[in-house]
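Contributing new complexes? Match this layout with S-adenosylmethionine.
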Amino acid sequence: MSKNQKDLKLQDNFDPSKSKNKDNLLGVYKSQNEDELISAYKDWALVYDKDNDDVLGTVSQPNSVKIFHEYLKDSKLKIIDVGCGTGLVGLELKNLGFSNFDGIDISQEMIDVAQGRGYNSLFLGNLNKSLPIGSNSYDAALCVGVFTHGHVGPERFSELVRIVKPEGIICFTINENVYESQGFDVAIKHLESLNIWKVLNIRKHDYMVKKNVKGIYCVVKVT
Ligand SMILES: C[S@@+](CC[C@H](N)C(=O)[O-])C[C@H]1O[C@@H](n2cnc3c(N)ncnc32)[C@H](O)[C@@H]1O
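Output block (do not edit by hand):
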């Protein structure tokens, strides 16, 4: 186990799944099934960016792309943004000069907002099932804000590994409030022990600053 992993001390603070608030942003975290989640994102898509800034203070997109860039310098490499949402990660990639990236998401309405934000191709897919992407298709994957309450669990790390080439990079975030309770911590170490990936970086960092929620930012290399 790396020093960073040992140093992770997770706090149990803002837990949207327990909130009585009916806001859009809480609707997505309280969804009981995929149909409810898709419906919640449908309602949220047009104001998602504003809520991210004004209500949540989400910084996971710039933070993730910054960490990702530490490991991936070649701007021509083929990247997939899984759970791309409205394309905030794409905007950050574009700003850093990346030019060859696609996006996939379960919500058509979120994808619609992402149009024009630098993606070569945007398409529908569900990470909880098999994605419509061939094995070893991408040099790298980003998955930001998807490993959280009621979205996708650690058992789907395998699907990210499948679509990324050997030696490729995967950068993902995990909401701190599900990191241990849903077994992400164990799964990350387990995949490393099986030599499926090597953890290059894992750190706890600001995630939704206006809600005082941190995220676990992880970069792995597929072996
Ligand atoms: C919190 S948003 C993050 C969006 C974007 N990555 C960002 O950082 O702004 C989560 C996104 O994951 C998508 N999503 C949720 N479950 C998914 C699944 N099973 N497969 C693919 N995308 C999913 C949602 O539609 C939504 O766009």
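Reviewers usually confirm one structural detail per submission. For this one: Confidence is low (pLDDT under 50) at residues 1-22.
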